[in-house]
TrEMBL record:
Gene3D superfamilies: 1.20.5.110. One of its GO terms (biological process) is vesicle-mediated transport. It comes from the Eukaryota. GO terms for cellular component: cytoplasm; endomembrane system; membrane. This is V-SNARE coiled-coil homology domain-containing protein. It holds the Pfam family Synaptobrevin. Residues 1-28 are annotated as: Disordered. It comes from Achaetomium macrosporum. InterPro entries: Synaptobrevin-like, Synaptobrevin/VAMP, V_SNARE_CC. PROSITE patterns: SYNAPTOBREVIN (PS00417), V_SNARE (PS50892). Its main location: membrane. The lineage of its organism: Eukaryota, Fungi, Dikarya, Ascomycota, Pezizomycotina. The chain crosses the membrane at residues 91-112.
Length: 116
């Protein structure tokens, strides 16, 4: 009995009687190598897709944080704008009151002096 079938790994696609044929076995081995290469490339591609997905998730998180920061900034900017508008209006009101008082100080004595 020959030990030849035990020397090679079991391949269900090679019939037991044709294992000794060199041409058929060579062609099968080449096809198997091509399949192995293709499987390796596909595994690399899947790993790259998974890494890309992780990067996209990270980018999505950053985008969400940036959107929240922009909304907070917008809210804060509106509050500052309103506060500055009120400050400006108070200054204008005080300026108008000052002008009215100054005009009253100038006009009232002159009117009273012309009546006497």
């Amino acid at each position: 009995m020959s030990t030849e079938p035990y020397d090679r790994p079991y391949d269900p696609y090679i019939p037991s009687g044709q294992g000794a044929q060199g041409g058929q076995n060579d062609r099968t081995r080449k096809i198997q190598e091509q399949i192995d290469d293709t499987v390796g490339v596909m595994r690399e591609n899947l790993n790259k897709v998974a890494d890309r997905g992780a990067r996209l998730d990270h980018l999505q998180d950053k985008t969400d944080n940036l959107a929240q920061s922009a909304q907070s900034f917008r809210r804060g900017a509106n509050q500052v704008r309103k506060k500055m508008w009120w400050k400006d209006m108070k200054m204008r009101i005080w300026l108008i009151i000052g002008i009215v008082v100054l005009l009253a100080i100038i006009i009232i004595p002159s009117v009273l002096a012309t009546r006497k």
